[in-house]
Amino acid sequence: MSQAIQYNSSVAMIRHPRFLQRAADLTPALQRLRQTPQAIVEAVAEPGALNGWRGNTVCTPEQFYQQPLNVGDSIIIDFGSHFVGYLQFSCRSVGSPPDAPAHLHFSFGETLSEVCEPFSEYQGWLSSSWLQQQDLWLDVLPARVALPRRYCLRYLKVEVKALSRKFRLQFDEIALETVTSAGSPHPAVIADLQLKAIDDVAVRTLKNCMQEVFEDGPKRDRRLWLGDLRLQAQVNDVTFGHHDLVRRCLYLFAGHTREDGMVSANVFVQPEVRADDTFLFDYSLFFVDVLYN
């Protein structure tokens, strides 16, 4: 992907209410499922492992819920697979009544390396605001918390940054409310076990990208891009068959165009539908290809 960024904020754009209304009518309902942790793991540096880290199981979630945490303690939770959703948890103080807030830091990772290596060393050209982390101060305990921001993860690292000396913190429950607009995929008959594993990962990736639009990625960007849509629509044809989602995406591109009719390379849908000021000629041709198919 090119690192060149277009700035075309002065380009005249036109909204097409009829197309935007059709897109709104096709907004899918999100399927919400509860996913609980599978294990508490310890990360071990290993050169031969994926990104240099291996996870060893140290206890079950049930055992972890019996362990009060002190300042400086941290744990890594393995949800067992890749999910997109919202973190929910409940916790309480242990010991004397809490006389200070509990300060927690959460790191969310698709791989172990993301929760093991410090974000402060990130030097990429993409905004560091995409790094999945959140600080939280709990003024009142016990607390039941549902984080409002959506995350994409398999691993969750919880760090206790600060408590008072009078109490410790104990979790009673941690879960994800996962979201997707995809249903169950059509079964695939694949004899080769390695190809079957690759296909399983690919289908799960598509499922997690299927939200209110086909997102180019549920972790970063989260936008509707024409280049991604073309590939996602082709795979959707033989997996989930969610054709109304493809139609919705096409109407979104058609609903906000350049004055001369050219569609943008990508579209934002929140807080309102707005085409980006990035225009790529080959991406515009993809619109024709997706529409034809």
Describe this structure in words.
The chain is of the alpha+beta class and 293 residues long. The protein has two domains: 13-29 and 184-292, no CATH class; 32-180, Sandwich (Jelly Rolls). 25% of the residues lie in helices and 33% in strands. The protein is built from seven helices and 14 strands. It has helices at residues 17-25, 61-64, 112-116, 193-209, 226-238, 243-255, 281-292; strands spanning 13-15, 31-35, 39-45, 53-59, 74-95, 102-109, 133-138, 143-146, 151-162, 167-180, 224-225, 256-258, 266-268, 274-275. Strands 2, 3, 4, 5, 6, 7, 8, 9 and 10 form a nine-stranded antiparallel β-sheet that branches. Strands 11-13-14 form a three-stranded antiparallel β-sheet. The chain has a two-stranded antiparallel sheet with strand order 1-12. α1 packs antiparallel against α6 (243-255), α5 (226-238) runs antiparallel to α6 (243-255) and α5 (226-238) packs parallel to α7 (281-292). It is globular and about 65 Å long. The two termini are 25 Å apart. The relative contact order is 0.18. Residues 195-265 form the Alpha-L-rhamnosidase six-hairpin glycosidase domain. This is Sugar hydrolase. InterPro entries: 6hp_glycosidase-like_sf, Bac_rhamnosid6H, Glyco_hydro_78_N. It comes from Klebsiella pneumoniae. Keywords: Hydrolase.
